[in-house]
Design brief:
Two copies of one chain form a homodimer. By secondary structure, chain A is α/β, with parallel strands linked by helices. Helices cover 44% and strands 17% of the residues of chain A. Chain A has 34 helices and 34 strands. The mean pLDDT of chain A is 92.
Chain lengths: 891, 891
């Protein structure tokens, strides 16, 4: 028994249906579905993706069975359309289109008007009664076939299409501006000239046999599955190469046969707002590509699309086809239970549907459509929750540029923290603070930022850095603050001395206006108007539905009461990472920190730490209070001590003056703390072990704050987290210190506080030996930034030099600092979860790396059984939705 | 039924035996064994290690059953020794000694002469006929008991023993110099003063009841299992804390009762040379501790020990006991089948054996004894191979200091590369070369070394650095060269400008003489005579036996034909790591390398690489030739490019001049290549991927050299190794380049060469995804230096700041850069081996990190099923022996 390779559709029936996308491609499956629904679809057939594989296996040969089925398919189309392929009097013309299981718009090839030759052109002219239309169709066919099937299209984008050159010459010769001004005879002459060009270029005559044309087109479309841009697109969108494409061969219908013809596109709801209005545009006497090309201005199909009283709607011009279209769109939306993006053609008053698919939409529209479709009873709650891309929500939470405002992009960097900002350039954090105090909007522009810059970053509207990746200091801090940031923008060069930056060959001085699009990584000259989003009631509704489904708790990474409150308002259920060192730079604290670093012995350090204690206690008091009733994970000191010392001469002198020591002493300390690879140096718990008094001070500050709040009747749940643990012994050492201090403080204060002591899992060895580490840990929190750095051996500060190339060349599919590398780093994470729970089945496990707010990574965290993810405040809603979707997906 | 806790011995019989070490401790088991053999051992009994656990469990209480068994033990000793515990006329005195399952020399406590009081002292005096002896014994007992049992010994080492202060006062009062000059009456007075001091210090009277004394001593010895130095010793020697110690209670015998008494120690063969001669020393009328104390010079026991005609041997002085001793030592050696270290005492002409154990010996002696004992038929070949500590062999391969030469150690650092060297200080590599050219022996002293210094390192007799660990550049290169090196010597401070270093508060200038002991990490003032070792025939024999047993192949890490030849002579079976970049600094090459780095585009880089090609080809030609018939693993470029640029102003100017560019241009390039964490930066295959032309050049050089040699009839097996692979795609990228170039070269040359393309496994992610990586790899080679750095998150250049403290505090048991961390990094290694072989069951797997020459790590490599280990040339014999021992151990 022969297998089925060709699936026919048309005339209210079809052999395929919507759920056969893998075999028939998206387009083919939907054409079949529409046909089954009784929607008027030009008859045709789909050659299945299996034949794509065959095509590659057999070097472009087809079996007799395939040939037979294709011939039967054509016969069926002839029957339905009442025309004959290659017939002189009543020729059937075909389109040959690719259609992969996943949408790959514009990546593969298409041939239209197939079946025309010197004979059939006569029939077309006769039947359409339009000679110019006939020759124009033929001209288009020869050009397209020449480009796509016969390889006339130049490989380089710089070279012009040879056919376009001929058309240009003709227009010059005829002294006309537009293609449409060429006459039927001109077009006829173009056909001849095109054929000569093909003969010259390929050494072969243009094929006149329609069947030869058809098989050529089919092979060309299969072949286009492996063209370079298709390969690249698949890589970028994780589409398997072995899926292959299907091919849809369909009867041509024409919207350009005359003024009783039209073509258009429409959405079943407004894709920008989600408004429940039928929304679309059309052109009379035009082809689909004309709507897109923008030479003629499309007209609104109905009053709800209309923006201008002069416009003529399709409803007015062709009321009968419009009425039919309206019925169809309603049916389609009801059938697909989603907003549809549809294409139609009206040929001599008859409506044909060419395509339907789920429509793309803005975040606001996605939320509104999902919620309203549930309210309408069209979809259930789970489906509504699945309908919004978590990543999209970002648009709703940050200001954006007015999409209509003109923009002069002068440089591109990494989209490090979303949002849009406009302000005046300053190059130093101090200046930022000074200017901001004078109510100036500033953009802080730095080669890179360091913790010293925190004050300036805090007041800046946007942050731009020339170096550093998605998890650089600037990026992490900016995301925490919800401030827009473009990082690692190597297109700009910065000269601090002259207070200027060079971008696109032009100098921008301090005080000049620029704008940043942190969602796209764009640096824009001058001011651009921004739009502040408003959160709708629908948003809240959708979030609350998401919360019904998700199992993961969502916490936030926050270092201040303000950030904590923001996050809490976004739904954070605790703090997963409070970085104590971010507090060290505020006010007078840095002086005490530096005193501690400069101290020669433990006694000196203790003295300085005593000064820090009240500050730290105050910090924790504020954060614990803001997060009352919720757990707060506080990480003990993590960065190497040299990060707290100034590195520029001027600042070192300042510090020396302030502390009453010599510049040489400052320099000597900076030198002695210098490290070749600070990322792998004396930091994290290694500090707490060599200087236990630091851990003691921090533990005391945490527990004293907790005791005080407990006395005030506020419920607090501190979780003290030891960073950079690599061995059980390290954790045991630090835990012992914390427990002893905590016991002492609670005795002093005569209060009991519930607290835990746990560890970051961010050193590969800790993950590998998680069973041992869990013996000491009361919780695990994955620090996937460092874990990624060490598992890959990439410094996030330096990887920019090769990561971009790795992504471009497809050596990496995604930036592992943005999307957790599930197949590598993920193995470590899974091992650690499994081994940790072998020792302690109830071990609380979360993630506090940047990945905790990235939807795919959140999905992974759900699947490996974590208890929570923690992310920057503005990503909390994204994480909530992603967690819910994964829970639904894996139910 | 009551269990057995006490094991009696004496009078030619015993309840224990030699293989009961875990229960009876090493000393107790051997005392029992000797007794069983009929060797005269003072009667006694061993309290088993079980009671040590009981002691800690029950807070120092003993069950009635234990008490009963101890009392029975004493009764048995009384019977055999014909004396009575506590008896006035014929008192039995006891010794109470610790004895753990593993030797812990001097770590725990001992009490001698137990049973003395104001009554029994009379019996002792009477029976010995020696009043002074009696009071001296009593004095010693009270002092020892006071210190050990009653806690009179000060905790701090700085404070003097209170009893010693009393003795000193007495000596002043009596105007004598030595203890031995004190009279019986003086000693009697001391006893009284001691007792007063104890009463004052503890508030309690000195116990007079012998049973109270005995139980006090037993508890003190059990208690000493957990004193701080014992804990530290156990940690350093990996002795489990739960083993506990046994206690040996034994009748006292005295070598200090008069001139018919003596005491001594002996070895059944010469522990220095291995000579098959009975070898030992003794003292007339002395106690064991006097032999060690060095106040009196011990005498040779026999002619073969004699070094001076005037000396009186034991054989001459006490022929009868000596004859007995000779018979006993022969029996013991035959019985234990190993060289024995024995202690004996002659009391009034009667020989008593106090201890026997396997004797410590030099490497030379170990080799000789092992080989000769096999030749004598005493042991089999496997046992002979097991008898030599692999690490010991190092002594045989490097110069050592004359052990008799005086040494003034001025600083201590890490024993980075073994051997001894004497030379004049220079601070710059260039100076080293210059001075060496003038036939000066130089020691290169640097804060740290970099590849630029290679020339100077090559000619230096020794290398001293102030920074960097066991796997720092200086250490790795020095070991490769077999040059002695002390690294990370933070005791010294170096001032390049003044050309001086400060050590122990004294300045050492350029040209001053110092000496380095690379095996101990010592820096010594001035010249010290060195001894160059000779390899004996026995060494070769033992090595060839080792080769019969081992399964692992042993390769070497070598970058020059010279190193290759050295290693081959040591038995290397190939090169496991040839670092191509070490060649980049020789002669004119560095100029071409820098040209490449400075080039703005690929064309410029290719031009510079073309200049490098002939050099590289020449390098490989030489190495392949030296290693004919054996595989040579060549690693493509690994270090970041900035390592090839000068970092000091002066050298940058030099480079600028040489290359005809400005200093600013050089500085700009250095800046642009600067990395925050170069270890995790743009290096390894990341270079070969972003600059494929580098890999192309190297592949061409390798294959061209191989082709040329093949034509000359030399068999070559290049294995091209891609460094720093983290993903399969990286390896695929580089492999494709290599394969294409290789195919091209072989076609050009018209020769076929067998070669492989494989990868380092040194990035954790590569280990985690080894199944995927193996799809592209033709071999794996573990780079455990980097793997350790990344798994622990330790930069080997910076970890010095905390690693020492980690080791001191027991947070790490061993430096993971010296001994492979089997329980952490080892998990990654095992995963990679298992996963790699899942994909390719025959995958060739080796290790080329520094651990490849460390015996425990070699054992691990054997167990996880690697095919080979590769180590620096001078460690090849060590690896051969370690591999053989592990094969025997796991047979």
């Amino acid at each position: 028994m022969s297998e089925k390779y060709v699936y026919e559709f048309g005339d209210g029936t079809a052999e395929g249906k919507a759920d056969m996308k893998l075999l028939l491609g998206g387009k083919g499956a939907n054409l079949a579905e529409m046909s089954n629904l009784g929607v008027p679809v030009p008859a045709g057939f789909t050659i299945s993706t299996d034949i794509c594989a065959e095509y590659y296996k057999n070097n472009g040969k087809y079996s007799n069975e395939v040939k037979k089925q294709v011939e039967e398919g054509v016969t069926n189309v002839e029957k339905i359309m009442n025309a004959k392929f290659g017939d002189v009097n009543n020729p059937l013309l075909l389109s040959v289109r690719s259609g992969a299981p996943a949408s790959m718009p514009g990546m593969m090839d298409t041939v239209l008007n197939l079946g025309l030759n010197e004979n059939t052109i006569q029939g077309l002219i006769k039947n359409s009664g339009n000679e110019r239309f006939g020759w124009d169709s033929y001209r288009r066919f020869v050009q397209m076939y020449g480009d796509v099937v016969l390889g006339m299209k130049p490989e380089s984008k710089e070279e012009e299409d040879p056919f376009e050159i001929i058309i240009e010459e003709m227009k010059v010769k005829k002294a006309v501006q537009l293609d449409t001004e060429l006459s039927a005879n001109d077009l006829k002459e173009l056909v001849s000239l095109f054929k000569i060009a093909i003969k010259n270029g390929t050494g072969k005559d243009f094929p006149t046999d329609p069947w030869e044309q058809l098989w050529g087109a089919i092979s060309a479309v299969f072949g286009s599955w492996n063209n370079q841009r298709a390969i690249t697109y698949r890589r970028l969108n994780s589409i398997p190469a072995n899926w292959g494409t299907a091919i849809n061969v369909q009867a041509m219908v024409f919207g350009n046969m005359g003024d009783d013809c039209a073509t258009g596109v429409a959405f079943t709801r407004d894709p920008a707002t989600g408004n429940r209005d039928f929304y679309g545009e059309y052109l009379i006497n035009a082809q689909g590509e004309d709507v897109v090309a923008g030479i003629r201005t499309p007209q609104p199909i109905n009053d709800s699309t209309k923006s201008d009283a002069d416009q003529k709607t399709l409803e007015e011009v062709m009321p009968q086809p419009y009425a039919e279209l309206e019925k169809i769109y309603q049916n389609l939306e009801k059938h697909y239970k989603d907003m549809q993006d549809i294409e139609f053609t009206i040929q001599k008053g008859k409506l044909w549907m060419l395509q339907t698919r789920n429509g793309k939409r803005t975040a606001a529209a996605a939320v509104r459509i999902a919620v309203e479709m549930f309210d309408e009873g069209l979809i259930d709650k789970e489906t509504a929750v699945m309908r919004v891309e978590p990543e999209q929500l970002d648009q709703l939470l940050h200001p954006t540029f007015d999409p209509k405002a003109p923009k002069n992009v002068i440089a591109k960097g990494l989209p490090a923290s979303p949002g849009a900002a406009t302000g005046r350039i300053v190059f130093h954090a101090d200046d930022a603070e000074e200017w901001a105090a004078k109510e100036e909007n500033v953009i802080l522009v730095r080669i890179e930022t360091s913790p010293e810059d925190i004050g300036g970053m805090n007041v800046a509207k946007g942050i731009l850095t020339a170096r550093g990746g998605m998890t650089s200091h600037a990026a992490v801090v900016a995301r925490g603050m919800g401030t827009c940031c473009v990082a690692g923008c190597s297109d700009i060069s910065i000269n601090y001395k002259n207070k200027e930056m060079i971008a696109s060959g032009k100098a921008y001085k301090e005080g000049d206006w620029i704008s940043l699009d942190g969602s796209k990584g764009e640096v824009i000259e001058g001011k651009v108007a921004t739009v502040t989003p408003e959160l709708s009631g629908n948003f809240g509704k959708l979030m609350s539905w998401a919360d019904e489904f998700r199992r993961l708790n969502i916490r936030t990474n926050a270092d201040t009461p303000h950030d904590s409150t923001v996050a809490r308002n976004f739904g954070a259920e605790g703090i997963g990472l409070c970085r104590t060192e971010h507090m060290f730079f505020e006010g007078d604290r840095i002086k005490a920190v530096r005193e501690m670093i400069l101290a020669d012995d433990e006694a000196g350090r203790r003295k300085a730490l005593e000064k820090l204690l009240p500050y730290q206690k105050e910090d924790f008091y504020g954060i614990f209070k803001a997060m009352h009733d919720l757990p707060v994970t506080v990480r003990t000191l993590d960065p190497p001590l040299h990060e707290f010392l100034p590195h520029e001469n001027e600042n070192q002198q300042e510090m020396a003056d302030e502390m009453g020591i010599t510049l040489d002493e400052v320099k000597a300390k900076v030198d002695s703390l210098h490290e070749f690879n600070p990322m792998l140096g004396h930091r994290g718990c290694r500090l707490g072990i060599t200087y236990p008094e630091i851990t003691e001070m921090q533990a005391r500050a945490i527990i004293e704050a907790a005791c005080q709040l407990t006395k005030e009747g506020v419920k607090v749940f501190p979780e003290i987290m030891i960073p950079l643990t690599g061995t059980k012994a390290e954790l045991a050492n630090q835990k012992k210190i914390v427990k002893e201090i905590a016991a002492k403080v609670m005795q002093e204060q005569n209060v009991e506080v519930d607290y835990l002591v746990g560890t970051m899992i961010e050193i590969p060895r800790a993950a590998l030996t998680a069973d041992e580490v869990a013996e000491e840990a009361e919780f695990f929190s994955f620090g996937t930034n460092d874990l990624t750095q060490m598992a890959f051996g990439y410094s996030r500060d330096d990887a920019g030099k090769f990561l971009k190339e790795y992504l471009d060349r497809g050596i990496l599919e995604e930036d592992p600092f943005q999307v957790l590398d599930q197949s590598g780093v993920g193995i470590l994470v899974e091992m650690a979860v499994t081994k940790g729970r072998e020792t302690k089945p109830d071990l609380k496990i979360g993630i506090c790396g940047e990945h905790g707010g990235e939807p795919k990574s959140v999905g992974f965290c759900h699947r490996v059984g974590m208890d929570y993810v923690s992310c920057s405040p503005y990503r909390v809603p994204i994480a909530r939705l992603a967690a819910a979707q994964e829970a639904i997906r894996t139910k």
